Amino acid sequence: MTEFGYTMMCEQSPPDRLVRDLRSAEEAGFDFSVISDHYQPWVSAQGHSGYAWSILGAAAQATERIPLMTYVTCPILRYHPAIVAQKAATMQILSGGRFRLGLGAGENLNEHVVGQGWPAVGVRHEKLSEAVDIISALFDGENSVNYRGKHFDVESARLWDLPDERVPIGIAVSGPDSCRLAGRKADVMVATEPKPELSEMFDAAGGAGKPKVGQIAVAYDPDRNAAVQRAHEQFRWFGLGWKVNTDLPGPPSFEDATQFITPEQVAEQLPCGPDLDEHVEKIKPFIDAGFTEVALVQIGGEHQDRFMSWAEKELLPALRAL
After folding, report:
1. Can you tell me the distance from the alpha carbon of 288 to that of 199, in angstroms, rounded to the nearest whole number?
2. Whole-number pLDDT of residue 184
3. Where along the chain do its domains lie?
4. Do residues 315 and 28 touch, judged by C-beta distance below 8 A?
5. What are the angstrom distances between the C-alpha of 4 and each of 91, 190, 212, 216?
6. E strands within the chain?
7. Which of 151, 203, 291, 313 could form a Cys-Cys staple with 208, CB 3.0–4.6 A?
8. What is the pTM for the complete model shown?
9. The domain defined by 3-321 carries CATH number 3.40.605.10
10. Do 75 and 131 contact (CB within 8 A), yes or no?
C-alpha cells in the first residue's frame, strides 16, 4: 500500500511554524514527512527559508512517531559530504531511528551562495557520486576515512556518534544518469515527477524492491479561486521542469521566467480547491508510476490548519482507498 506524507516546506513558513505544523501532521495520521533544504525561496512571495537541519532537530523532539527525511540535501557545494554525514547520523540518534537522508545534485538557487560557481550537470553528478561514497563510508563506521577523489578530499574523518540503525540514503532522480546512480548507490529513489520510466530505470540499475518517494504540491481551500491564485503566486515555477529549475540563480530569475504563466495553467497541473476527486485524480499518477510513498505540499504557510483537518477526514482516507 502506498504511504502518504507531509512536507515541511521551508520556503513558505517560518521555522517554529514548520515544527508546529509537523506535530499537527503527525496527529492527523500522515505516514511520514519530508523537509526541503534551501538557502532561499523559489519566489519572493513564499518569503522564508530557515535552516532545515535546525528545524529537523526541533522536529525530532516535538514528535513521537512520524519519520523524517531531507527532500533533498545537496552535498556537493554548500555542504561538504563529511559534514552531511555527521548531521545525518546525529539526526538519526535524535529521532530514535526515524531519519532518512535524501540527497540530490542541487540547484543553482541554493548552492551559488558560497561563491564556488555552478558546475555543469555532468560535473554535478560526478560530485554527487563521490559524496555518496564518502557519506556511506562514514556511515559504515570506519575508524579513519581517507578519500582522494576528483572533486573531494577527506582526511582521517570518523563519526564518533553513530546511530544503532544506519541512515538510509535516498537519491533524487530525473533522468537516465541519476537513475543509474541511485540504482547502484541509494536505498531510496526520490523524484518529483510521476514518470514510470524513472521507476523502470531505477529498478534496472539495482533499485528493484526499494522504496520510491514522490512529491506533489496541492492547494486545498474551500474557495477554489483563492486556491488557484495562491498556487499561481507561490508555485508557478513548478512547471518549468528541473532542467530549468536547477540553473536559475535566484527568486527574481524564477519570477521573470514565469511571468507569462497563467493561474489557469497552474491549476491544470496542480489540484486546487475543495474538490476531493480532483486532488485524488492528480495524485494518483504517482501510484500508477510505481511510487511507494507520496509526500504532499500544502501551498501557503498560513493555510495548514484547515488542510490538516480536511486531509485527516477526507483526503487520506480517499487516497488509501485506492
Report:
1. 11
2. 98
3. 3-321
4. no
5. 22, 14, 12, 11
6. 3-8, 32-35, 68-69, 99-103, 145-148, 153-157, 169-172, 188-190, 212-218, 293-298
7. 203
8. 0.97
9. no
10. yes
